[in-house]
Each structure stands twice: as C-alpha cells, then as structure tokens.
Amino acid sequence: MSLLKLLVVLAVWGGLWALNARLAARGHHIRAIRLAVPVIFGLTLVLLWEMVVRLFGVSSVILPAPSAIAQRFAAETPTLWIDFVQTMLKGALSGYVLGCGAAFVTAVLIDRSPFLQAGLLPVGNFVAALPIVGIAPILVMWFGFDWHSKAAVVVVMVFFPVLVNTVAGLQATTAMQRDLMHTYAASYWQGLVKLRLPAAMPFVFNGLKIATTLALIGAIVAEFFGSPTRGMGFRISTEVGRLGLDMVWAEITVAAIAGSVFYGAVSLIEKGVTFWHPSQRG
Amino acid sequence: MKTPVINAKGVCLTFETNDGPVQALKDVDLGIERGEFVSFIGPSGCGKTTFLRCIAGLEVPTGGTLTVNGLTPDEARKARSYGYVFQAAGLYPWRTIAGNIKLPLEIMGYSKADQEKRVEKVLGLVELDSFGKKFPWQLSGGMQQRASIARALAFDADILLMDEPFGALDEIVRDHLNEQLLALWARTQKTIGFVTHSIPEAVYLSTKIVVMSPRPGRIAEVIESTLPRERPLDIRESPEFIALAHRVREGLREGHDA
Amino acid sequence: MTKVVPVLTVIVALVLIWYAAAVGMNAQWARDQAARAETTLGFGELVVDTWSQDRPVLPAPHQVAQGLYDSVLAIKPTSKRSLVYHGWITLSATLAGFGIGTLAGIALAVGIVHSRAMDMSVMPWAIASQTIPILAIAPMIIVVLNSIGISGLLPKAIISAYLSFFPVVVGMVKGLRAPDAMQLDQMRTWSATNSQTFWRLRLPSSMPYLFASLKVAIAAALVGTIVAELPAGATRGLGARLLSGSYYGQTVQIWSALFAAAALAAALVVIVGLIERGVLKRMGMAQ
After folding, report:
1. Which of A90, B122, C69, C174 allows an S-S link to A147, with CB 3.0 to 4.6 Å?
2. DSSP annotation of C79
3. Which chains touch A (3 or more CB pairs under 8 A)?
4. Cα-flanking dihedrals φ and ψ of residue B79, to 5°?
5. What DSSP designation does B71 have?
6. Composition of chain B by helix, strand, coil, percent to 5
7. B75: β partners
C-alpha cells in the first residue's frame, strides 16, 4: 500500500518536473516563463509536502502540512503581528539603522587617517567573521529583556560588515579620477562628496544588504536568551517546547517574508542610488 | 623677449623604485609660447606623459625649474590655470554629461546660472548639443572623449593639457576628432600640450613637435612645423606633410639608437 | 610588517577602553557593597574592586584571560568544565555539517550549471534563501529530530550543513560560469566533450569562487552549531556554555566561551584561507 502511495508521489514529482523541463527548454528567453518556472517548482515542493504528510499520516509534531500551517497563520494573525512588531520593527530595524549609521559615520571619520584604516580594517574583517550572535546573552544582561537588548545585538552584528565595505568603497576610486580632482585643486571635502562617496555606494549597499539578514538573525536569536512574552524568537522557542510546530512554521513564514521584503527594499534603494553601476544597468 | 607660458629649464625627475632609481626625465629644456600647439611624441618610457604631469603639478620634478604662467606648477594648479584630458574619458557614471561638465565648475564655485551657460557653450564646441541629459555609458567612446574635452574647456583656463586623449579610439573617429580639435584650438586660442604616439597625429595637429627618447627620458629634437595654421584633412597627402613626418620618424630612430 | 603597528595600536586601544568600561560598568555594585559596609572607596580602591569582582557586569580582560586559562589549560580536556571539551563538541558538529553542506552544495551547483531546468527552477530559491534568517528553524529541527530519536551530533550537523549549503551553491554556480565565451568557444573548436570542458575548464576556473564561499560557509556553519546548542536540554558545546552562563549570571564563563568560539571561528577561516592559498598556488592562480 505504502509503495503505491510512494509511486503516486513520485509520479506527481516526475510530471511537474517534466513540465518545468519542457518550459525551460522551450521558453527560457520569455519573461513570463522565466517567472513561472521557479514558481511552479516552489508550488511542486509544497504540493509534495502536503501529499506526503497526508498519504503517510505524518504526525503534526514532526512535520505539519502546509495547509495546517496556512490555517494557523490565518487564525493567529494578530499574535504574529505583535511578534513581528516586537522583533522586526523594534529590535531588528532600530538596531539596523543605528548600527549601519554608526558604521558609515565611523568609516568616513577614519577615512582621513591611513593609520586608523590600516589598524581597524584587519580587526574589522576579523570581527566580521566571528560568531557575534554569541554576545546576545551578555547584551540581554546589560540592556534587559525587552527590544533594547535585541537592537544592541543587531547594532554589533551589522556594524563590522558595513564598516569594512564602506572603507573599501571609499578607496575604490581610480588613480585617474583622483588626479582629475587634483587638477581642479579640489579640497578634501569636495573630493569626498563629489567623487569618493558616490563611487563608494555600490560597496556600501553590498554591506547594507548583508546586514539585513544579519539583523533579522540577531534579533530572533537574541530572544532565545530571554525576552518579554512576545517576539518571533520567543514564540519559536516556546512553541517548539509545546510541540506547536504549525505555529513555529507560521513564524518562520513571517521571518522569510520579512527577510525578503527587507532585502528587496534595500535592493530597490540601491537600484535608485547606483543606477549607473554596470551591475544595475542590466 | 617675454618668458614663455610654459618654461622648463633642466627639468629632471627620478623615481625611487624597488629596482633602484629610474631617471624618468633628464635635463629637459623647453619653452612653449602662448597659443602654440605642442605635441610630445616618443616610444613608451620616454617621459612624455611624465613631463605633461609635471606641468600639471601631478608629479614634482627632482631638479631644474619649471614655471607655468610664471608660477610654479603647484601654484598654477591651485590657480586653476589649465584643463587636463586623460587617456580615458573618466566621466563619472553617476552624473549626466552636463553634470560631468559642471563638476569642475561646482568645485571652483561658479554660480548656478553661469554653470548652465558654460555647459551649453562647451557642449556646442564639441558638437554634443543634444546629449547633455544622457549618461556617459549611453554614449560611444569617441563621444565620451569629446565630453571629457568639453569638461576641460568649461572653466577659464588658457592652457589645455591632453595625455593621449584619442589613443583608445579607432582611426576614423580619431581623424574626425583631430579635425574638430584644430577648429576648437583656432576658435579658443588656447595653448595646448598634447601627448601622442602617432606620427601623423603629431604632424597634423602641431605647431611644434617635441621628439623624446627613453632611458633616460629626454628631448631628442624639437621640430617647428612648416605647415600653415589652416589645415584640411587632405594636407596629410602633401609633400610638405610627408617630409615633416619623415623628419619626426628620423628623430625617433636616432633617439632610439643613441 | 607595516600593518603590525597600526593593528597592535588598535588592539591595545580596545583593551584600554575595555578596562575603562569595566570600571564604569562595575562601579555601581562596588559602591553598593561599600555603602553596605559603611565605608567609602577611594578611586584606587574602586578601580581594584571593579577589576576583581566575582560576577562583574563586564569582566576585565585579565579576568577573561584567567577564565580561559582555567578552563582550557589548567583542566583536563575531558572534564565537563573544560572549554576544550565543549569546543570539540561544537567543532565536530561544525565540521561534519560543513562537509555535508559543501558536498551537497557543489553537487547542486554542477547540476544547475548543466541543466537549464534546474537552473531556472532552483537558482531563484537558492538566492532568495540567502535573505531569509534560516537560523530561526534551528530549535525546531533539534526538537523534532530528538523526538524521533536522533540526537547528539547529527541534528546540529544538519543545521550547520543547511547554513553552509546555500553560500556554496551560489558561489560555485558563479565559479563554474566564470569561463568567458571565448574560453568556452576554444573548447568547442577542439570538440571537447561536456565532461572534458567541466574538468579542464569550468572546475579549475571555479576554485577562487569556491574558496571565497567556503570561508563564508564555515563561519556560518559554526554559528549554526552554536545556535543549535541553545535549545533547552543541551548541556554540551560552546552554545550550551553561553546559555548556562547567562542562566546563572556567570559573566566570566560567558566571555570565556565567547572568546573560545571566536578563536575557533578565526582558526577555521584561517585554515580554509591557507588551503585556498596552497591550492591556488599549485594551480598557478595565486596573486
């Protein structure tokens, strides 16, 4: 019996994959098909997930079906919204703005000192590779359970990638461009504002995009070390404890949507600011 | 006799490299009068670009004296005495063509209205009238280089220094731009220093051709052009032109053998 | 050599700031204690006290160093209080996960480069997944796997494999596509087979990209393991040390575990970097 079920699942998989393969082979230059193929692939996975859970009677404490998650999502929207506000808007976003702002200002301030750059850049690169989420328990002790400690974790996490990228960006001008400013007898600030800051923008946005994901991770993981009775990390860890996996998946869905929207928003601003860069001209 | 606009006496420049000192320029003596069009020609490593950069204050000679408008090159740079055109157009991709031409004007503090007026004027000079709102990457290489010349013409400097400005362009575009440059020079009466490695280009454009030779970089010969100021493109087939080109080639060969 | 002096200066400055911060942040407790004993502290006494408290808000650098010494060198590596023991637990799960994730990532990348259908279906999701805080599912995976009887190293390794998987896929696809049209045409003029083109052109060209993403992946794998050690019940590993330290207010323990994790991360990235240098040098691609 279960062999038959397995065959059904495999048949659905094979059929939809064949459809995708044909679409991809025929119309890879057509915009609509380029959009449709990944969407069909994603829907196939969700469909197979649903089928496997139903046909094999997988327990909901191991893997809830997508439909169950969707139901829970719809039923618990107010709670999800409260958690979203707590973790994303208060924790992640405020920390992101503060951390990125501080890193940008620091990069501009140390720009005039080659000594500080030579010293801070290796240290910054080193710190950017460290498991900084580990400071979450310390910052939760210092700043309390509410969102302030989460924002603090985010500040530390996003600071170094943005700093390192901005410093690298400010050095990204060519010798010819700098010579040109020199022939105009331009002052340091004129050179910074008119040449080096605009030229740095692709690098700055690279850092800002890396930082969006880090900000969400920092805000969620910091809640594992203590939080008020709301927030996405809090909800995930308590619902996992209660085996309410459909709620956990609902929170993960929110995190995925929030992450994509956040990243997409930063990319959109990037497109506006660095429209001139070859990678954006497409 | 009054002092030339650009006056070099025994200019030397030695670079310290990892392989020991390299003499880039040795005892360069040269005077350039107002309104002259002077070409520097020679094989790579002969110091032609280095000498132009010395005039611009981008390099500092280690010996001799060099004055521009009677000032030191650095003072002349601060007085914004010259416009400089590099090998590549080097336009800022985040600014429009008009925005790029405005760049030096903004830095030098020209008024907004004056900026607009000047941009329009120099765009006309290089025949890019309707391209002010375009971005550099939307233009061909030759048009970009014309825009960079316009950028160097936008402010009131009576010297124009050009470092192989047409080196990266194809022959046809190059001919066209040479013709335009001569017309521009006639109209603006500027003093031009022009680095090139093309003999026909040097002969066609210049009133004075400075032949340089390498190791150490020095002047091998200075040839005064006998061509009239009015030069149509087909002057390049005239016997006079061919004789001049021959002299330049001889000068280059001698410098090379020495 | 020219970089050593500035870097040391910055590090010394950071340590000095740290000491100053320790005075500031621990001063409240020291004053309270003094008030209770009805004495007042002079500045010198205050400084000494703030640098030697048992449970300081911010332990001074030498206290962390002492804590590291006590839990790394002065103790048997098999002891439950040894950071070597906990570090090994974390490291083994990290390496296992990193290995699985890297192999799977390379395999998928090869598939994506050779199959247009896979490219169009999977690649957008692989890229999108990098914008998602995947780490949030760590506690769930641990608990679910525990409930079906899988515990110990494997659940943690799965999480770190998952985290190192996506950077490797994206980097490797980019790398396998690095050869330009001219190089590919050259292979075609020799009528090379797909697999010849792969082994002789695509794979060698992809190495710089692969190593760049391996450095990202191994750091991500370590973070994954540490976070996977956080859910209640875990008693082994650096993550568990962080959590128990935060439960009992043992700040020195937290800081020691944090530095051990940092040292581990740095060592792993450096090792990948050295392998990269060696490989690229042998291939004649080192700068």
Report:
1. A90
2. S
3. B, C
4. -85, 5
5. B
6. 40, 25, 35
7. none
**Across-strand partners of B65?**
B9
Question: Quick one: DSSP state of residue B155?
Answer: S
C-beta atoms of C121 and A140 within 8 A: no
So what's the ipTM on this one?
0.82
Helix pair angle (A147-170, A94-110), 10° resolution: 30
Task: Please choose, from the candidates C286, C265, C268, the residue with its C-alpha nearest in 3D space to the C-alpha of residue C208.
Answer: C286
Nearest by CB to C132, which of A28, A135, A255? A255
Residue A15, chain C, CB below 8 Å: the answer is no
CATH number of the structural domain spanning residue B60: 3.40.50.300
| C-alpha span between B100 and B123 (Å, rounded) | 11
Residues 27-66 of B with CB under 8 A from A: 56-58
* CA-closest candidate to residue C259, choices C15, C8, C1: C15
Do C238 and C257 contact (CB within 8 A), yes or no? yes
Pairing state of beta strands B20-32 and B6-17? antiparallel
C83-282 CATH: 1.10.3720.10
DSSP H/E element including A115: helix A114-128
Instruction: Read off the tokens for A159.
Output: 């600071």
Contact A181 B78 (CB under 8 A): no
- pLDDT truncated to tens, each residue of chain A (282 aa)? 778 888 888 898 898 888 888 888 887 778 888 888 889 899 999 999 999 998 888 888 888 999 999 999 999 999 999 999 999 999 999 999 999 999 999 999 888 888 888 888 888 887 877 788 888 888 888 888 888 899 999 999 999 889 989 988 998 888 888 899 988 888 899 999 999 999 999 999 999 998 998 899 899 988 888 888 888 989 988 888 888 889 999 999 999 999 999 999 999 999 999 888 887 775
User: Does A138 sit within 8 Å of C132, measured CB to CB?
Assistant: no
Question: Which residue in A179, A183, A281 is closest to B137 by CB distance?
Answer: A281
Closest-CA residue of C relative to A249 is C137
- Exposed (0-12), middle (13-18) or buried (19+): which is A91, by Cβ within 10 Å? buried
Q: Which fold has domain A73-281?
A: MetI-like fold (1.10.3720)
Task: Give the residue on C whose Cα is nearest the Cα of A39.
Answer: C121
Q: Are residues B111 and B184 in the same domain?
A: no
**Number of domain units in chain B:** 2
Q: How far is C182 from chain A (nearest CA, A)?
A: 21
Chains A and C touch (3+ CB pairs under 8 A): yes
In chain C, the residue whose alpha carbon lies closest to the alpha carbon of A254 is: C132
